Each structure stands twice: as C-alpha cells, then as structure tokens.
Amino acid sequence: MNPNIYPPAMRQLINELSKLPSIGEKSAIRLAYHLITGDTSRAFSLAQAITQASDRTEFCKVCFALTENEICDICSDANRNDGIICVVEKPADIFALERSGGFRGKYHVLHGLWSPLRGVKPEDLKLEQLFERIQALSKSKTEYNGLQELIIATSTTVEGDATALFIANKAKQQFQIRVSRIAQGLPQGGELEYADELTISHAIEGRRIVDDHHKVI
Amino acid sequence: MNPNIYPPAMRQLINELSKLPSIGEKSAIRLAYHLITGDTSRAFSLAQAITQASDRTEFCKVCFALTENEICDICSDANRNDGIICVVEKPADIFALERSGGFRGKYHVLHGLWSPLRGVKPEDLKLEQLFERIQALSKSKTEYNGLQELIIATSTTVEGDATALFIANKAKQQFQIRVSRIAQGLPQGGELEYADELTISHAIEGRRIVDDHHKVI
C-alpha cells in the first residue's frame, strides 16, 4: 500500500486502529473512513469514551476485577456469598460468568495463567494475594463460616489445567479447604458426533446420575 | 445482557464501539476490554488519533476528496493530467483507484449515488460542482487542451449505472466531451463457471481484440 494516498491524520488513525485485536488493515481503513466522514460529534464521543474508560477503570483491591472504585461492586455486595471464591484468568471471564447468572459468590482474577512456555511463572499471577485472602477468610469466621469452597474456573487448556492443579495443591495443603474445578463436557447444543476425543472422555468421566424424576443430581 | 456487570465508563465505551460498522456487541466488549487492560498510552494515542483525524480532515474544494488542506494533494499535483476527470461515489473509491496505480488524471467525488428508492436526488450529489468544473476546463485550454475525457467509475449497481447514465447524457449534451465508463467483466482470478449471468454478458459485450503479439488492444 502507498500510505501517502491518505491525509496524514487519517494515516495515523488507520495505524492506531490496526493495532487493535482482530482489526486488519482493511477494517482499519473502513473504520477510519467511517469516523472521518461520519458525524463529528460521534467520533468525539468515541474518543472521549476511550480516554475515560482507560482513565477511570482500575483493578479492585480485593479481587483484581475491573472497577471504578477501590473495591468492586461484586466484592462490596453484601448479598453475595463471601464463603465461595471463584478463581478466573482475566476480568472478561467474570463478565462471562455473570452473564450466565449461575454464580453468587465472589471472584479472584489471576491476570494470567502459569505458562512455562511463555515465561509466565506462578509469581507473576495474583496468587499470593489469593492465598492471603483465603488466610484472612479462614481466620475471620464470617456469616458463611469462613471459606467454604474455592472454585477454579480457568480455561480447559494445558495452561488452565496446570494453573488449576497448582492452586488446588497449595490451597488444600495450607488451608484444608474444598477445591473444585468447573465441569468439562459437551457444550449446550453440542453433538457427540462432532466433539473431540478429550471433550468426550471428560464428559464420560464427569457423568452424573439421573434420579427417578429424571433430574441430574 | 445485564449491562451492570461492566463499570460505567467501560459500558459507555462498549456502547460507542458498537456503533461502528461491522463491530457487534461481542467485538465491542473485546475491544473495550483490550483498550482498558492494555497500555494506557496506546488507548490515549487511539483517542487522540480519532479526534485529530476527525478534526483536521475536510473535503477538497475542487474534487471533494478527503484532505487536510483547502485543495487536496491530487488536485494540486502538476504532474497529473488535468484533462481527464474520474468520477467516483465516495473518497474511499479514490484510495482504491490510487492503490491500483493505474490512473494519473484527477478525480471528482459525488458523495452519493442517484437513488430514487433511498430518496437521493441528483441535486444531493456534487454534480453541479462537477459541471462547473467541466465548464471551466472547457474554456481554459490547459496544457492538455481542456477536458479530454470524463471517466465514470461509479459502482456497477443499479444506482451506479443510473448515476453514470445521468452524468453521461448531461455531459455529452452540454459539453460535447468524451465520456467513458470503467469496464465490466470477470475480476482478476475469476472463474467463468462461477460468474453470474450479468457479469458474463458484460464480459462478452466488452471483449477486446487480441493482436498478433497476443496483446489485448
């Protein structure tokens, strides 16, 4: 491409947009063109939204999720169970779990997964903070009798599994608490015929009894 | 989606990003997450690039392409042929033509196509300005003897064809100049087997003689 065909500020914008994930050069050009020829006030709104979101959003001091306050809304929600902590890799995972609406405990964000191949060590994750949290909860008997369960909801990848095992071992040794891992199996709507071998073997391993009322227990 | 799971400024950013073309809610969330958790200076660079590009870029007073000056680089380029004007629908079309490198004349951007269905009338396009330009060029005999040719490079759609015909009729009546339309046919790498009927019939209509040296003339 001859970059001189675009005016300088447009070239700069295309360059910045191309750095975004899953935005290639063609998409960047289309977006830049849209922003420049469209309503100026809308371009300004977007620029302002980027600045403000980047400026105001920080990590929660307790769970390291995204928040605009010292402590995030979930951590400071008295209606949520303090006794269950769900460990995730990144803030986006909390949003995914919250969308499902199936969890009413608290979270802890690791900000990464243990990956020797990529040079990520356990010390690089928010693990020390997790164990300090567990320690504090084990001492102070809250409404829910300290920590009841640690749910590890890292991805079902090699790194996710390794991180889960690392946390589970350490947590069980130090605190004698219950540690669980989210279930692996067929996704909703998944067809056995097209599922990979590992998913099927996990689905069979993790099978659950169906009771007389045809309910899975 | 429960929008309350995102901090307010992030929610606002997701909302603004979703307004961009071909960015759905999921992409907007992923981009917002990337901008917030990534390097703050990069988010600021993007915001600044949007503001500046939107601020500084205007339409060229002559051809209505995008520029940061009164007159765009192409219009003020003395090495380009003033005697050939290529008429396009939108500034992005100029970028596409310039990338191909096959044209060394000047441009004129209509900023739309005649479309009775969408309520776009010929008066809504930069047509009056085009005819004024042709008039001026016809009077002042430049290096290239005024206007030699008007190439209409609108899309090969119903609207594009209607607009081309409208311009061609008016230009030929008023100025007795040569008016051409870009060729329609099989695209590079196109297979006859999979081409639609209209493309094939245009390709046959527009066939060109191959000379003794096997060159298309």
What does this structure look like?
The structure is a homodimer of 217-residue chains. Chain A has 217 residues and is α/β, with parallel strands linked by helices. In chain A, 42% of the residues lie in helices and 10% in strands. Chain A is built from seven helices and six strands. Chain A has helices at residues 8-18, 25-37, 40-56, 91-100, 127-139, 158-175, 197-205; strands spanning 58-59, 66-67, 84-88, 106-109, 149-152, 178-181. In chain A, the strands form two sheets. Chain A has a four-stranded parallel sheet. A two-stranded antiparallel ribbon of chain A has the order 1-2. In chain A, helix 4 (91-100) links the parallel strand 3 (84-88) and strand 4. In chain A, helix 1 (8-18) packs across helix 2 (25-37). The first copy, chain A, is globular. The N and C termini of chain A lie far apart (60 Å). Chains A and B meet through helix 1, helix 2, helix 3, strand 2 and helix 4 of A and helix 1, helix 2, helix 3, strand 2 and helix 4 of B.
